Amino acid sequence: MNLFNKIKNFFWKGGAKAGMLSTLNSVVDHPKISMNEEEYRRVRQTLSMYEGKYPEIEYKNSNRQTKKRTPSTINMLKRVANQYSTVVFNEQCEITVEGSASQFVEEVFAHNDFKKNFSKYLEPMFALGGLACRPYFDNNTKTIEFSWALADAFYPLESNTNNISEGALTFVTTRIEGNKTIYYTLLEFHEWENDKYIVTNELYRSEFVDKLGTRYPLQELYPDLEESMTITDLTRPLFAYLKPAGFNNISPYSVLGLGVCDNCKHTLERINRTYDEFNQEIKRGKRRIAVSEMLLSGRVDKEKESVELYFDDDDDTFQIVPGSNMEDMTIKDLSTDIRTDEYTAAINHHLRTLEMETGLSVGTFTFDTNGVRSTKTATEVVSENSQTYQTRGMQIIEVEKFIKELIVSVCELGKLYKVYSGKPPSDEEIGIDFQDGSFQDKSALADYYLKLFNAGLIPGELVLESLLDIPENEATKLYKRSMQQTASRTTGIFEGVPEEME
């Protein structure tokens, strides 16, 4: 750190201690950010539900006392988001780039374990409604690294109907100073000024987790990070942003996406309330037996000069019924039947509503004595022409666009730091194969290829290559053997075998 920065930091810290610098309660209070706080309050609420955090239930007991208890819940928000991420993307997806960028992109994606990490972040993206990936150059390793930010850590600055061109990302770091936990938030702004791309970094310090705090010297935590950097010759932002397909009907003028369950939180609440009541009925439905005090043994309490009736210390089944008449010397079972079938039917009814509201096929989730489980296989999803498969098709378009934008940003960043010398690939040069084999009806696919083959439009080798997912040379050998066997069975000789197959 040079002398000028040391002097500036000294006065900066002094101003912060004296209260001369302004303090921001949240990121949206920053003058550069014009997003509505309500949008991020919604995202934070959804994040709390995704984490399985629900408020305690307040109730009055039989003695009219106010009590609180932790509810029994089913985290269906996570289950729905997981169902989306599972059918949309998996690690078998093939990403190919033509031209000079092929090897460079492959090395960067392999170094960052992109497929595995993207699969992991896709679930919370569907739950919260957004995901940003920012490639950056690491001066220590001399490689391009990926930094991920969920919907609650990304703030659009400028956008149009098709894309978000400017944004701010937040990164929170905690440190123990004295006996206090201090929260440092790095705000990274990505902005355009005509053809120039400007990255600005600001650091804020706070003693409270829910407040952004006061502007602080950047070098206190990031000594090698510049406060501002101007870049030229970029065609797009140095980040890619992904949100679920569909319109934000909750905030029509917002560019943020909606989580897949944001329109059905009441249904999630009904599922949890019904499940909680079911568990309470199980708890209250344990066996209880009323017995007359005439049947109980007694022990003398010398201090109180009274006889105390008692049960075994470990027993909670019997209840005392005061009475000394002979007809009271009976035992009555007070246990009630647990309405298992009724509660199971009610939860399944709410699950059907949830499937309809989230665009999933009927029967995707089923509740029974083993809990909630998925019942549809990938083959059934396709063969039934299901809603899930149609919904998946919409989401794949967004995912494909996100990956292509990220590849272009990686190449432009590599060129900036001189670790890549080629040009960024075009959309046509980037291929993404989502490996839909498990989502395709093999029988229907075979009929399709055989019709093309019988019409003389494609060779037999291509049929085998496509249906069996094998290399071209293996398909050629297999097709030759099948032709030989067919000729042998019909004529006993290899007549009719095409010359090129000999």
Structure, described:
The chain is of the alpha+beta class and 502 residues long. It is 37% helix and 24% strand. The protein is built from twelve helices and 21 strands. The strands form seven sheets. Strands 1, 7, 8, 9, 10, 11 and 12 form a seven-stranded antiparallel sheet that branches. A three-stranded antiparallel sheet has the order 6-5-13. Strands 17-14-18 form a three-stranded mixed sheet, with no helix packed on it. The relative contact order is 0.12.
What is the CA-atom radius of gyration, in angstroms? 33 Å
* Number of β-strand runs: 21
N- to C-terminal separation?
75 Å
Beta content comes to 15-25%
The overall pLDDT, averaged over residues, is: 82
> Number of helical runs?
12
Low-confidence stretches: 7-12, 313-317
Structural category = alpha+beta
Biggest β-sheet, characterized? 7 strands, antiparallel
Query: How helical, in percent, are the residues?
Result: 25-40%
- The gross shape turns out to be flat
Key features of this structure:
502 residues, alpha+beta, 3-stranded antiparallel β-sheet, 12 helices, 37% helix, 24% strand, flat
Q: What is shown here, in short?
A:
With 502 residues, this protein is α+β, with helices and mostly antiparallel strands.
What secondary-structure arrangement, pairings included, does this model have?
Blueprint: H1 3-17, E1 23-24, H2 37-50, E2 57-60, E3 66-69, H3 76-88, E4 94-97, H4 102-111, H5 114-128, E5 131-138, E6 143-150, E7 154-159, E8 164-177, E9 180-193, E10 196-206, E11 213-216, E12 228-231, E13 240-242, H6 265-284, E14 289-292, E15 297-301, E16 306-310, E17 318-321, E18 331-333, H7 340-358, E19 365-368, E20 371-374, H8 378-383, H9 387-416, E21 430-433, H10 442-454, H11 460-468, H12 472-491
Parallel strand pairs: 14-17
Antiparallel strand pairs: 1-11, 2-3, 4-21, 5-6, 5-13, 7-8, 8-9, 9-10, 10-11, 10-12, 14-18, 15-16, 19-20
Helix pairs in contact: 3-5, 6-7, 11-12
